[in-house]
Amino acid sequence: MIEESKKHCILIVDDEADFRNILKIKLESVGFSTMEAANGKEALTILGTTQPDVILLDMMMPEMGGIETLFKIKENDKTRHIRVIILTSKGDPREEIVRINRKFAQESGAFDYLRKETDLDEMIAKINGILVEDGKK
Amino acid sequence: MDILKLRGISLFIIAFANLILALILWQEAKKNRANFWLALAALFSGFYAFFCGGTYFFWKSESMLSVYWYRTTWLGVLLLPPFVTFTYYFTQRIKNLKFKISLLYLGAIIISFLAFATTLFVKSVYLRYPHISSLAGPLDSWGRLFILLCVIIVLVNLLRDFFQSTGFKRLQLQYFILGVSIFAFTGIVSAGIIPILIKESPYYDFTAYSSFFWVGLTSYAIIKRKLFDIKVILTTLLVVIIAFLLLFNLLIFTEKLPLQIFKGIILASFLFLGPLLIRSVLREVEQREKLEVLTKTLEAANEKLKQLDKLKSEFLSFAAHQVKSPMTIVKGYATLIADGTLGEASKEVKETAEKIKNSADRLISLVNNLLDLRKIEEGRMEFNFEEKNLIEVVKSIVEELRPLAQDKKLELSFESKDNEIKVDLDVQKFSQVIQNLIDNAIKYTEKGWIRINVKCQMSNVKNKNEVLITVADSGRGISKELLEKLFEQFSRDASVKKEIQGTGLGLYIAKQIVLAHQGQIWAESEGEGEGSRFMVKLPFA
Predict the structure, then answer these.
(1) CA-based nearest residue in chain B for residue A113
(2) Residue A45 maps to which CATH number?
(3) What's the domain count of chain A?
(4) Gene3D superfamilies in the record, alphabetically (chain B) (predicted)?
(5) Does A101 reside within a domain?
(6) pLDDT tens track for B469-486
(7) Structure pTM?
(8) N-terminal to C-terminal alpha carbon distance within chain B
(9) Owning domain of residue A49
């Protein structure tokens, strides 16, 4: 069992409350702690004070979309190291990101991505994989 | 009858015809200002033919009256300024027109006055049977240069517009240009070059004859809403001219009976063949016109279809995303119930939730397939090729799908002699293909095995190596008819449509993806109940 103090924190950024809720319930049921943000701006505010282990970031959001938020996270020295998983309904977002920001082409390993409809178990497997890579698990 | 009288009468007829055309054009003048000027030109052209006719008809040697008749033919220059004006109006270049045109009118009036009242243009008139000719005065050449200038302006105006015009206007201009060319050519030769060269003017009335062509063709082009193709007119003209020449030759230059008979036969056969020629040209032109209309209709229809297609595509994209996001939520909640995350539930509840989740999954994959299909159809599917180890890629898919095979108690195996085969792949899209093939194999196999094999082989086409991936199963097999259209859109095994869920798009998309990898995909089966093999062939990196 994971002790309370060692719980890994996941920041869920999605404009759809139901989707956030599903992820929150599932993640907490397997021992993660979660935080929620409804768009990029809210996410950046939370990141100003907290450092989650992994960010689940939706692509299409009002206010500030996923890609812009990703750029902001990766531009900031304090948040650059945080692993980001882009959630998309369109498939590989890499092309689009490269199109917007050529600089990112070289560091395309700076994020992972999953289709939004991916099975929840698979999502958790991916998060755990990342935590293992980072030596956090 | 005397040939001079005959020439006179024929010129009167031409004059009369010109006047009638002038009258008709006058009627049309209300519709278009250009027609007024053309009517005026036709009127003067009629006068010109009339005076030419008068000269011949009333000819008397040594008579001052005959000299005046002859001089009046110079009044013909008055038709030129209205005709020039007409071309400016017709081509809609009427800016700063007044000054230029006034100069022309002034020139024409001065010339016709001097020609009539003095000996500056016509010194004397005499008969050189069967022509009436004149001795040119000192200003004669200048007058003819004036005519040349006007004709050049007319032709330049019309030609300049001709190259920019299309459709009906282009056809109209073809008529004008043909008519004016005939008139101008005859005029330049008979009233220009010949008089300047031989210092007398025996053929000046030929211009009057040819005036009928330009007034006739021009009026026809303006009045008719629908024009014959110019080719038909040209062919008809040619046939008529040749027929007249043959007739002329037969009647005047042939005296011996055998030759007369021979030439008569030629004329008769020509009269028989000529109309056939005209008709065949007419038919060809009609067919071309029909084709043009058809082409235009098709083009319009095609354009509309394109728009509809775009609309369909936009709608599909919109609807797809709108369906996907609530379905993802349905799937998510169903998963939470089915796996007990929301608290323990009865077996029935869990099973029901599992069914909801599967249905949502199916719908999502249908939408994904439709979106892929749209991308393929629009040529928008992008590929990111990277050199990858195919063995690893296939192996990981096999492992991913192993639970599905285990659920149905099927033996799922992967086999390859190599540990590493490097191939250029878009991993995501190519994985989709292999996933689809193995997934199908599991779906369509009730008991037995599914074997996946990856091997290198020599290509028989080029001296190059290639990779062959085989997904074989002991399942229900594929009938011959289905085998043929297996990789087409929405082709599914009708016998299992209800039992086994699918969209009928997977293999079509798979084929498109494999083609983009410069590969081949095909299926083999001995028949129903005999299992099947799906192969993908890829070139080496």
Answers:
(1) B428
(2) 3.40.50.2300
(3) 1
(4) 1.10.287.130, Histidine kinase-like ATPase, C-terminal domain (3.30.565.10)
(5) yes
(6) 999 999 888 888 888 888
(7) 0.52
(8) 98
(9) 33-119
